[in-house]
Structure formats: structure tokens, C-alpha cells
Amino acid sequence: MDRPGGTILLRGEAGIGKSALAQHTLDLADERGLTVLHGQAHPLHAGLAYAPIVAAVRPLLAKMTEISGLTQLGRLMADPRLPTMAPTDNPELDRTQMFEAVARLVERHAPAVFFIDDLHWADRGTIELVHYLGRNTQNVLTLAAYRPGEANPTLEDLATTVRRDGTELSLAPLTDDDVARIAHNLLGEAPEPRFLEDVTQRAKGVPLFVTALVQGGFQAVPTIVRDVVLGRLQRLDEPERRLLETVAVAGEAATDAVLSAVSDAPAALHTLIVDGLVVERPVARAMTYRVAHPLYAEVAYAEMTLSERRALHAAVLAAIEQTDPDDTLALAPHYREAGSLADPVRAVAVMAEAGWRALAVRAAEEAVRYLEAAMELAEPELQPDLLDGIGRAHMNLGDMDAATAAWTTGMRLADRLGMDKALAVLRFRLAMLDSERLDSAMANSQLWTQLRDIPLESPEIAIQSIIYTLRHGTLDDVRALSASLADWIGPGHPAHARAVAHFGQAVCLLIDQKFKPALVHAQNAVTQAKRCEAELPFYAQYFQLFLSALSALNGDVAMSIDCARETVSAGTLVELPSLKCFEHYALSFGYYLAGDLANALAEIDTGVAVAKESGMPRSISRVLAFRAFVLAEQGKLAEATAALAEAERSYRSPEQSLVEVVALASTAIALYDNKPLPSIPFDASQTYSDPVATMLRMLFAGLCGLNNGQSSPAAECAASLREFDQAAALMIAIADRLDGVRLHDADLLARTADAFDGMGAPLLAAQARLEQYEFSKSAPALPQVLEVFDKAGAAHWANRARQLARTLGIRVRAPRRDGPLTVRESDVVRLLGAGLSNADIAARLFLSGRTVETHLRNSYAKLGLTTRVALARWAAENL
Q1: CA–CA distance from 49 to each of 283, 284, 362, 613, 732 (Å)?
Q2: What is the pLDDT of residue 619?
Q3: pTM value?
């Protein structure tokens, strides 16, 4: 409590004492002057985004007089001081900004304890926000309780993450002695032995069961919770039972105003509170009520007939409409459950708003649930937009078939109703999805047709137009599109529109071989995108990946890695399925240039897993081809050849960027296998498609040609690289290296090696240095060059260096043997053996969490181990 922080999960079955332990913690925090926030998940809220979060933070907001910097809370809750935040076309960014606003609100009241009870009933968004608060707030302890048997996949992922840090507390059942003490306290005297034995056997150490069974006496109490709860409820008077049912149905909406309107029974409410069945809590100037234990609420709700539940939902929503008609969060679940008793027009409006709101904050499952519920009641002219939202939500969930079905239905409906604008958007979305999934010439042609028919009314459409024009259009198409967006650069346009315009100009300038101006526009694109990153993260991520490539060409490998790593850390937010895993591809390229082949392979392996999960042929082909290249650099030619063959089978309608990376892998394999240069056509005007892959392909094409006694490929590639206006540093260095090898110019190679070193590309520098030594027959720093190759795991180059050492009579260190593990795998396993968590290892080695997991997965497989303990023991004995 002195320095609260991080996340603690309380794990245990129903009634085990999680809530009691949490309440004790909250009481202790309150006594010490900490701010206490308490939210309660409810089975009724499983389809409503962030209900427990709203319940926890609303009291804080109500007390505040200064809310500057918190306007994005308007996406979470209704408050007259907050602006109404309309969802944008980038819901993931909306959600990130809202998460940050909640974090800042809680931090303003730090030190604090933030508790969400029964997290297993919470929606996915609430679980992810709990995780975010635990990782991104200072002086705030995030506490949550859940039942392991009812946890959903999102909660299981959170628990797994927290468990690695040792901050999950699993509550064990009570001992027999503990049960005896509880029974004694409840009865006021020692229980009879036979009675105590019965309670102990039936309760199985669960405190709630113990309490219920002891209070029920020697009745025929079943061993399951439902019967225990029903036995207690059946002893209530009719007004008390009906009021308890009302509180159970109302959930978080059970305020004094709502209860008074639905079931005005103050005496019954007093009895329930005194008996401990209902808990009251002040929220601002109102009082809220909840059933003391969720099992009571759950059983009470389940025991009502469907008509009884619908009637109560209708009564609750009518009361909310009278007191707070703008509170979608409170209204939506009751409109959904009230059925025919609710006004259908109002139900559509409320549930649609709840669905769009959920989609805006990336709560896609909740969005589907509410938008589909609205669809069932909506008039035909409202349905195409609802179906568009349903399709987008399914797209976010990775369910392409469901997205296709929703958009197809919407398109047919819009066509029948003559809704041309909605029809154009839905046709474009379907064509885009077909192009992404099928990757066929026909699908791409259909997309190109739709793309030319849709007006550039928004930056979202514009950025997708640029991407698909790059793939399927001509260079003149790209130039024309870039020119049409040039006016958006002006200050009168929003930041994301200006970012898209700068990106278009950068691409156009690359096509025209003007690198320096292209780099300036790429930097401006990122600068503008950063200004709206909280609301629209896709733009910043995509443009940072583009800047990562241009930074590499500019000779700034560290910047290239930083840009790619930031995108990886932010998570996959891109809207286009085939761009999934592209951030791993970019980061792997950066690691390669930095001479870290182990991390390059681990990162691209992560990309392969992501790509195969998405099922996108273009993505799979790209990452497999680069994986083949990295394997070739490591001397694993058989594996490289197999990966390349799979990459070539994966793509069906190749674009130039895929051609470049596949050609890079083919050429590298040919070089190291002493095979002829592959005859893959090259077009220097296509440099923009994948700049780094194109540059490296030209390097390896020149080297492969020279290896086969052909000097013309090296001369032609070097000349092409020098054709750029103010060519980039990496391009010049590659051209110089090709000329140096072709002309046997040791001095030029020495200068080239220095240039590569200055860029932060030690592997390329060592290769040029070795080539210098081979021509000069003098190798003063050969041991250091060999050390670079050994550390990188570049087998071919290490063998060449040792061969030169033998020729020149230079003694060098024998090859390092780390057993079956690579150098980077050994680093990761060594830190695991020292007791570091995966997150700590990632931070120590500047890796992503998924890369650490990949290294560990490979290490387990190589060593034949299955547990972390066994791997730690191996590390202690061998590293």
C-alpha cells in the first residue's frame, strides 16, 4: 500500500473468498487515505462494453471540477461536461485514446486501488482496459477477481501475462479447522459434530457454501450453489424477493431512482440491506444497489420466467429513460432483453449506438452483438449501414467469412433500395476482402474497378487507394493519385489527411528516383500522423513502417529498427489483412542490417505465425521469402530452399514487392550454393515497392554474377543505384561495394566498409572488409571481422574468413560452440535461468515479447525440454 502499482489477480471458484479478500484490501487502502475505485461485472453485461469500468470511475468524475485533458472519456460515458465523441473510421485508435484518458483520470487520484470484481463476467474491452491500467499507470494498484473455470480467452491471456510476474493469487479452499471456526462464529456456539461433518463434506472448503449451509441448518440443502441460494431466497417475503429480483435485473442501473420507479418498497430494501443480501453504495449524489454476491443475482435472475424477466427489463429501461435517457451504457442491455415490450424504434437507436460505440473502441464482439440486435428491428433503409458495421467488426475479429456475408447482404439490400453511396462502399469492401483473401488476378481486377469508381471522400479511402494502386495500378496511376491528394497538405486539412498526402508525395518522388525529398515527405507524414495517433493509430503505424525502410536506405539502421519496433510494440492495428505481420517483416529487416541474424530469424518466425493465422497469401509469401533469405545467410541452404519453395507456392498474383523479396532469397541461395544468377526480371523504376529488399537484391545479384564470372550484373546494378537524384547512403555504399569487388579495388572496399560501419550495419561492413582483405592480401583486423561473422551466425562468411586466415597464416579463434542453441537463444535462456520473466528478458535484450517467446519455443524444442524449471536448470548447468 505504500507504493501501489501493477496488477494483482485473485483467482478462485465461486464463494472462495475473493471478494472478501479484495474488500479487506480496499478497506485497508481507504484507512491509509488511498483512493478506492470499485466496479462489479455482471452476467447481464457480457455484451456491453466497459460497464464495470464506468461504474468504478463515474464517482471520480462526478467529484471533479477540472476535467481538462479527459475529453476522450466521452467515448466511455455520458456526462454533460464531456463532448459527444463520434466514432471515427479508426476504432482501434479511438479505443487507445479512451484507455489513456481513463488511465490519466485514475492517476490524478493516485495513490489508488482500482478493483473489478467477477472479471470472468466482464466484456473483452473491460478485461483489456484492466490490463492496460495495470501496465500504464503509476501509483495505482489494479486488482481483479475472477473464476478460472468461467474465464474467457481474453481473460486467460491476461491471467497468463500476470502469472509470469507472480502477481496472481490463487485462493485455496478452507481447511477443516477453518470451517469449524466459521461455523462456530456464525452459530455463536460450537456446532454439533455430525452437523459440522455434514457442512465440511458438502461445502468442500468454499466459504460461501459454508456460510449458507450453516445458516440453513439441517435442512435438505443440496451441495450445489443454486440450491443453497434458492434455499435462502425462499425464506424472503414476497416484497423482498421481488425487490431482489429487480436489483438483479437492473444490474449497474439499480439506483435509488430506478428502484423507486420499478418497485417502491423501502421497507423491503431496508431488510435486504440489513440481512446482507443487498449492498448499497453512494455514487455522486445517488445511491446504487447490488446483490451482495453475484451467485444470488445469477440464481434469482435464472429462476424467473422469460416473461417475468422481460417485464422487469422493460420497467427498468422505462425508469432509466425518465432519469437519464442519454445513458446508452445503462439502457442497451435492457432494450436487448425486453423483447417486444420495448419501443422498437427506440430499441434500434439505442442498440445501434451501443454497437457503433463498441466498434469505435475496438470491442468488436460487443459491436456484433448489439448491431445484430439492432438489425433484427431496424427499417430496411438503416440496415446497409448496420451491416457495414457488422462486417467491419467481424473483420477486426479475423472472421473473414462472416464479414463477407454481412457485406454481401448489405450490398444486395442497398442495391434494391437504390442507396448508391452505401452500395459503393460495400462493393469496395467486398472487392478489397476478395483481393486480400484470394489474391487472384480476377479479384485484383475487380478491386481495381471498384477503386476507380469510389470517390476520395476520406483519408481512410485515400490511404487504401494508394496502397492498392501501388499493388495493381501503373506508375502513371500512382502519380495521378498522388497529384490529386497534393492539396491535402495545406493547413486547412486535418492531420491524418495531411499525413496521407505527404505519403503520396513520398511514393511519387521515390518513383521519380528523388530520394532526399521523398525522405522529407515520409518524415512529414509520420509527424502529421503522430498528431492524431491517439484517435487514428493506423496512419502513424503504416507511415512509420514506410519511414523504417527509408531510414535504412538513408544509412540510419538504428532509426529503422526503432520505427519498426515501435509499431510491433503497439500491436497489429492495421485495417488491411495482408498488412498483418508486415511490422515483423520490417523489424526483421532492421535486425538483419544490424547484423543480428538470430533476432532477424526469430522476428520473421513470429511474422510467419501471424501471417499463417491470418491466412493471407501475400503475407505468407513475403515473410517466408525473407525467412529463406535469413536462413541462407546462416548457411542453412536446405531449409532456405524449402522456405523459398513454400513462399513461391503461396502467392498467386505477385506484385512487384513480392517479386523483389522472392528474388532476393533466390539470389542469396544461388550465391551461397555456387549456382548461376536466377533470371528474374528487374525494373529499377519499381524501387518504391520494397526499397530495402530491392537494394539488397541488387547487391546479391551483382555478387552472384561475379561469383559466376559475370561482371555485367554488378556493373548494371551499381549504375542503377547511382541514377537516383541525391541517392541514399545505403544505395551508394552498395554501389561502391559492387564496383570495388568488380574492379578489385581494395581501397574502395575499405571506404565502403567504413561507410557500412557508420550506418550501424556491422555485418555488411565485415563482408566488405573481408573482400578488401582478399584483394589486398593483408588482413590486420581479420580476427575482429571473423568475430562479427561468428556472432551473427553468418556461416558462409565465417568460413571464407577462416580460409583467408589459413592462406595468410593468421591465427584466429576456433568456432564458438554454444551447443544446440544460437547465440541469441543462449542469451535468452541464460536470463531465464537467472530468474527473469519474459517481459524482463525482452526489456534487457531490446526484443519484443513475441520474439522472446519464439526464442524460448525454439530452445525447448532443441533441448527436448517441456518446462520452464527444466530450462532454467539446463541454463545453470550449461551457460
Answers
A1: 20, 22, 10, 26, 54
A2: 85
A3: 0.60
